[in-house]
Design goal:
The protein is of the alpha/beta class. It is 30% helix and 23% strand.
C-alpha cells in the first residue's frame, strides 16, 4: 500500500461574508477535492496539543507518526539548521530569525517583510552587524537561522513571540523576555538590526536532539527548509524542487512531478503546500482561496488521474495541519477536517464536496495525527 499525504498548510478556516458565507476552501474551485470527498471517507484529526505551540511543527511531526508531547522540540529552528548543514552542539541555542517590517509607529506590520526577495534579504543582512556570539545564516526570503553559541540559559524560561501570530501589535509588548524580564542580548541585537522599516526577529528557539527513525520509507516534497530538515532528521528523504517558494505562485507542477518520480521507491509520499497559511497570516481571504484552487488544479487533479492507472494499491489523504484564520491571521487548536480516498476506502457520509462545516456536521470519527500512517500502513 502506498500512502500519499497532501498537506495544504493552514487551509482550514471559518466562513466569510465577502465569500458569500463560505470558507476559502468552500469558495475555491476544487473539483479534485470534491471528487475525493464524494468517493472517499471523511474524519476529524487531532493535530494540536495543549501546552505546545499552535502550528506546523506540532502538526506535521504528528502526521509523520511522532506523538507531539513526547517528541516535538521547543522550536523548528533545529530542523532549519539541519537542512542548511550548519554545525551545532547541545550548548548552542538555535532560533528562527525573520526579517520583519515594523512601521513608524512601532507596530509589527509584516512578518515576511513584504515576502522579501532573496537578493534584497542578502543585501539587508550584509548591511547588519551581528553582535559577537551570534551567527546568522540566510535560508530563503525572510527566513534565517540564528545561532547563539554556547548559550547556557534555561531556554524553557525564554519567551519569544512568533511574528506571524503578532502582526498589528506594538513591538514594545512582544519583545523577547527571560523569566519575565526583557532579554537584553536579543533586544540589543534586534535594535542594531534596524534598517529603515526592516528588523530581525528571533523566535522558535531550540537545541539539537536525536529522534528515532521512521519505521517506513518516506519522501517529502516541500518548499520549506524546516520541513526538509525535519523529514531528513527523522530518517526520511526530502526534495525542495526548483521554483518551490512556500508562497502563492510556487512551482506546484514541479512538486507534483517530484512526488510521482519517487512514489515507486517509498511507502509514504508527503506533499506540503504552504501558500494557504501565508495568505491567511496576511488576512488575504481571496488570495487564500486562489492558493487552494491552484493546489487542486496543479496537484490534486493530476494526482487523481495519475493514480487511476497506478500499478500498486494507493490511498490519498488530504489533511491540513491546522486552522489558520484570515480574519485574525492566527492558528486555532480545533480538530481538522480531513479526507481519505483510494484502495479499500468506502464513503461514510452524504457530502457532495469539500466543506469544513459539512465534514464537522457529519459527525465523523476522530483520529490522533500520530496514528494516521500506522493505521493505514500497519507500521
Amino acid at each position: 500500500m502506498k500512502l500519499v499525504i497532501l498537506i495544504p498548510d493552514g487551509m482550514c478556516d471559518v466562513q466569510y461574508e465577502e465569500l458569500g458565507g463560505l470558507s476559502p476552501a468552500e469558495y475555491a474551485r476544487t473539483p479534485g477535492m470534491d471528487e475525493m470527498v464524494r468517493r472517499g471517507s471523511v474524519g476529524l484529526m487531532k493535530t494540536m496539543h495543549d501546552g505546545l505551540p499552535l502550528g506546523s511543527l506540532v502538526g506535521i511531526m504528528g502526521i509523520y507518526g511522532y506523538y507531539p508531547p513526547q517528541y516535538v522540540p521547543r522550536g523548528r529552528s533545529i530542523f532549519e539548521s539541519y537542512a542548511l548543514g550548519l554545525k551545532t552542539n547541545p550548548d548552542d541555542l538555535v532560533c528562527r530569525c525573520n526579517i520583519v517590517k515594523v512601521n513608524s509607529s512601532g507596530v509589527l506590520e509584516d512578518f515576511t517583510a513584504g515576502q522579501i526577495s532573496n537578493e534584497l534579504a542578502r543585501a539587508y543582512l550584509d548591511d547588519v552587524q551581528i553582535p559577537s556570539g551570534f551567527e546568522i545564516y540566510h535560508d530563503n526570503s525572510y527566513r534565517n537561522v540564528l545561532i547563539c553559541r554556547e548559550e547556557e540559559i534555561d531556554d524553557t524560561q525564554l519567551e519569544l513571540f512568533e511574528p506571524h501570530e503578532c502582526m498589528g501589535l506594538s513591538i514594545d509588548n512582544i519583545l523577547p523576555r527571560f523569566k519575565g524580564e526583557i532579554y537584553k542580548p536579543f533586544v540589543d541585537m534586534m535594535s542594531r538590526s534596524v534598517r529603515g522599516d526592516l528588523m530581525l526577529w528571533p523566535w522558535g528557539a531550540g537545541r539539537i536532539r536525536n529522534f528515532p527513525p521512521m519505521p517506513y520509507r518516506s519522501m517529502t516534497i516541500t518548499g520549506l527548509s524546516f520541513l526538509y530538515g525535519m523529514a531528513t532528521a527523522l530518517g526520511g528523504k526530502a526534495i525542495i524542487p526548483d521554483g518551490a517558494t512556500g508562497y502563492r505562485g510556487s512551482n506546484l507542477n514541479a512538486k507534483f512531478k517530484a512526488a510521482m518520480d519517487h512514489l515507486d521507491d517509498v511507502d509514504v509520499c508527503l506533499i506540503h503546500c504552504n501558500a494557504p497559511d501565508e495568505e491567511a497570516h496576511v488576512h488575504n481571504v481571496v488570495g487564500k482561496a486562489q492558493s487552494i484552487a491552484d493546489i487542486d488544479s496543479q496537484i490534486i487533479q493530476p494526482l487523481l488521474q495519475y493514480l487511476e492507472t497506478y500499478s500498486e494499491p494507493c490511498r490519498i489523504v488530504l489533511l491540513p495541519d491546522h486552522y489558520t484564520v484570515c480574519d485574525t491571521g492566527k492558528h486555532l487548536p480545533d480538530l481538522v477536517p480531513y479526507v481519505i480516498f483510494g484502495e479499500g476506502i468506502d464513503s461514510n457520509h452524504s457530502l457532495k464536496g469539500y466543506s469544513e462545516t459539512g465534514i464537522i456536521n457529519s459527525a465523523p470519527p476522530v483520529m490522533d495525527s500520530h496514528h494516521l500512517i500506522q493505521f493505514h500502513l500497519g507500521k
